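dumping these here so i dont lose them again. two proteins, back to back, each one seq then structure tokens. dont judge the mess
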Amino acid sequence: MRWRSVIVVATVSGGLAAGGCAGTLEGDEASYRIVPEPGCDVVPVFEAHCASPACHGGSTPQQGLDLASIGVRSRLLGVHSKSTGCEDRFLVDPADVNESFLLEKLESGSPSCGDPMPLTGEISDDEKACIRTWAVAVTGGPKDAGASAPGDASPGPGSVDSGAGSAGDSGGSP
């Protein structure tokens, strides 16, 4: 009796181990890998200047704008500001990158709503240029005839946004 239990358990365990996981992925493995953000990798810039727990990181980021976790593009591109008086502005405007409220908050000493970002410390001109380059790449570039977007850096189909963070704005936040 005892041997039968061992044989049944061994047979069931062996069958599961040999069969592996059920199901398969569609497409090739590369299409499921996280790809770097197009244009410029904004993740380290957001992490260094925006993603502290007191600002746009932690469990309760300012106005829900999480710039610390994967998926920042989905929380910025085509998402309206939560800044009082600027709710009609997109954080990153998909129709015209030059109208992006995030870029105004970073590049202007006196944005139309709220405070310039970041609130503490400084962000270098190179880091501002990185964020602008990223915004141009994810929107397809400025819509005016004189401006040109960097080369096509769009991720392929099935790729995953590697960005850091959520959209929204508190009076002083992008």
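---- next one ----
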Amino acid sequence: MNGLEIGSQVISMTVFLAGKTGRASFQKTEVKIEIKMNSLQKIGGVAALIHSAAYLVGIGLYLAVLGPIIDATPTQYVALLANYQTTMYVWILIAYVVAGFCLVAVALALHERLKAGSPAVMQIATALGLIWAGLIIGSGNLMIHGFDQVANLYAKSPAQAETVWLALKIVEDGIVSANELIGGVWVLLVSWSALQTATLNKALNFLGVSIGVAGILTLIPALAEITQVIFGLSMIVWFAWAGILFLRNRPNMAL
């Protein structure tokens, strides 16, 4: 065997080993990415279930305990606030703060799952989801701080406490409670993206589109009350359904 043949074999062996090493490295990278995606999907699934449960607890507290104060006139509200302050704090913490942070995880998990098939739409949707979460958390913090101030002020001046409460309510309504536009557009874009790419469960996607439309319709005063009820109750189902499916499926499989 001459030197040229030996050199050729050495080069071939080097190329073969390099290719094998490269494939092994690529496979390891794929495994790491899949593990990371699995972890995020599980976090998103748990967060979606907690978010749904937080809404259920919030509705339960409203119906069982907080109905008298939430449905009260401004004068009655500030008079009752001191008696309900602890319960209101727990209600806001669960229905706003906990739910808001869980929404962050859900939005990021959905982005990771859907971005490959619809990157532009999911960038917009995820931005809206994070904005919505921030508004919910901010609204909760505002109410927790505001209610404490109103309760303390009522002991000194009931009239001033009522004025402060009215101002607080206007601000809080403007942040998140007056309509469900941002949440509606978010779930609509996510569901539409999933329908176009056949990524998520089809029935869940159609439900999401319907919920999104209902959220947008809360902008119309004549429809606001009924569409807010439809949006809120349907989102409990949507989050619970999505959470269960996230926990039961792999990232590279359709839900």
